[in-house]
Amino acid sequence: MEHVKIKRRVYGEHLTSIEVFKKFILPEIEDKIFQYRWVDLFCGEGNLILPILEVVPKEKRLQFFKKHIFCFDIQKEMVEKAIHNAEKYGIPPEISRENIVQRDTIKNYPVFIFDSDLPVYHITNPPYLYKGYIVKNKEARKYLEYFKGVNEKYQDLYQLALINDLRHGVKNMVYIIPSNFLFGYSVSNQIRKDFLKYYTIKKAIIFERQIFEYTGTHVMICFFERKLYPVDEPIVFESVKINREAKKRVYTLDPKYNYRAGQEFEQFVEEYRALRPLKVSFYLMLDEVAKNKGEIPITVVDVNEYDGKEYAKKTLYVNEQLYTKIKNNILFVRTLDTGSVDGRAGLYVIKEVFGVDGILVSKAPYRTHPIQIFFTPYLPTEIQLLLKDYFNTVLEYFRELTDSEFMTTYKYSESAYTRKYLGLIQVKKLIETFPILTLNSDSMTELKELVKRRDAKGLIQFIQRVNKPKVLISWR
Fold this sequence. Notes:
Structural class: alpha/beta
Helix content: 25-40%
Largest sheet: 9 strands, mixed
Strand order of the largest sheet: 3-2-1-4-5-7-6-8-9
Strand content: 15-25%
CATH superfamily of the largest domain: Vaccinia Virus protein VP39
Mean pLDDT: 91
CATH topology of the largest domain: Rossmann fold
Radius of gyration: 26 Å
CATH architecture of the largest domain: 3-Layer(aba) Sandwich
Number of domains: 2
Low-confidence stretches: 1-14
């Protein structure tokens, strides 16, 4: 069983159910099935192509299959399963073997699919395998060759599939891909910039619940259409987001922000950075403690020692300089939602949550651990508490405004809300909008009152005014 799991992971294989195809894709293409060659370059068992045959009259299926359906997969066993499944629709194996072929289509794109008067329509659930995983796991390192040369800048196998279709001029595609295509930062900035110059998104279905049996990867179904000519311009499309219920949402992807969804937060932190932003750093590392040993005791939690319920508490003996640094920085950032209402990502007071003075990283720092924040120069406790409430109020405002889409979905759960991850770059940028170093007494009084009332819109307008942006943005 473990061998099967490893094999599935190495191939980036997450098989699509026929139900997903019938419910979300078939209704969009059913009226034009005779107008295209239907191709899946990563077909698995054939569940995204073969069910098209159900809407073809039985007496026409054989000829339709010969002319309209082409499937490929790198794994021989998947090809055999697809051939078997084609037989259920009345296609004999000797016929289906002509059009269902074993082939590594990332390395060897089957250009012969274009040898027809019919245009190609590519429907696929390509392999997902992040470059970082490939580098670290010897079973998958054979795929590193895919990322050489013109593909070096891409980060995942599914991105190579997209860019291959772009290079071969495919006009229409439906892709089931990780939703980080829309919402990711460094992992998908490059593919969005390159790909969405040539393609628009006609529609998307975004899943915030699990649809694959063996993975919690967050996925979306994207309907792509090639533009008449390449151009960098905003893309506007309608989506359906499915969690406990289905809700519609219109997205605008702006090339200025790398076509990333949830751009309202990014616009705010970019345009309204304080004239004199706070200087902030993260993590209390063990090597810093080792360099500042002394006789003054201070209590910390060690985030690398967790027993399933709580972090280990320790007493460190440090010099006065490090003691002062730890004691004077009372805040930590929770980058990851816990799932509870009072455990959302944001800034918190270390003493209130953990009953200690600091948060130690004794081994490797992890982005999902609680992380102590350090300000240079030190901020008075009163100002740190004001910053905490400002940060959390503005963060919740943008979570409400964007349905938390500027954050990364962590994983599916039965929580009251979809758990999200807030990146440290985002934390830093939001802190840098806090204009405390440039306020006069009247403005300080106004800021304190707005924070006290948790007046998010008032705070946004205040920041717009005092940080003197180059461009005014109107927030609803």
